Amino acid sequence: MRYLILSDIHSNLEALQAVLTAAAGRHDDILCLGDIVGYGPDPNAVTDWVRLNTGTCIRGNHDRAACGLDDLSRFNYGGRVAIAWTQERLTPENLQFLKQLPSGPLRRDDFQIVHGSLGDEDKYIVTQPDALEQLRHLETELVFFGHSHHQGGYMEDANGYLQEVKPSLFRGRSLAALELLPGEKYFLNPGSVGQPRDGDPRAAFAIYDSERRHLEYWRVPYCVEATQRRMQECGLPESLVERLSFGR
After folding, report:
1. Could you give the domains of the chain?
2. pLDDT, tens digit, 9 for 90 and up, residues 171-210
């Protein structure tokens, strides 16, 4: 089975469309690791697509807040403004969909999916000690996570050595492959579709072939300026608009 793995779309329709074009014909099922909404200008269009097309989707912290399951005090100014704006515009059908999304971890095939971490969907995994704690408690040898907006992840080899996974996709490269070996543990992030924060503004995603134990990290360009214009028209904070240009 080939899985298209998406995370942190954040209401960015242009980025999502670019990802779907690049991934067309390369997958059998679609998984979403949460944060469908927040930050971007198209919450209903993106949520409609996720609701109708993904095989499995778990919630993220922005999804939870946008449908009223969490308050906004935990978010910074830009995040609060964007979520409040989103709340006012989501259709009743999409609000109900977000409310009913399960939290991770969920198991699919030979792996699990989470938004933040195995024990806390809001926890950011951004350091090796954070990752080591996760790897030592895996129920499967492979977990996909989101939330950090950084493509890559961590692995522990058969000898217990921890390594950071950093796909090299700069200088115009669109994909990097990773072979998953028996006896090794992996905690991997497909990156953010709609708001990357790893210094590369291109939309990020991954494709995992469970039969071959083969993962492809992908980056694809999209019309960032079109998304930025839409955000400005919607009156969303300029800080959220500007960061899309730099992937930060």
Report:
1. 2-243 (3.60.21.10)
2. 666 889 999 999 999 999 999 999 999 999 999 999 999 9
